[in-house]
């Protein structure tokens, strides 16, 4: 059972639905597994809890 974890900033539900579908389809195609066996976990991190290049994302 493939489990995919995506860490990202907040996105709307429609974008996440599309992402989950595309990731699932990629695993079905590449690994020849049933879609029901693919799990996608989305962890959303707020901009004030994520940093890059020495700065909080919220400060950009």
Automatic annotation (TrEMBL):
Gene3D superfamilies: Macrophage Migration Inhibitory Factor
Keywords from the named record: Isomerase
Pfam family, one: Tautomerase
Single GO molecular function: isomerase activity
Annotated 4-oxalocrotonate tautomerase-like domain residues: 3-59
Protein name: 4-oxalocrotonate tautomerase family protein
The family this protein is said to belong to: Belongs to the 4-oxalocrotonate tautomerase family.
Keyword Endoplasmic reticulum applies: no
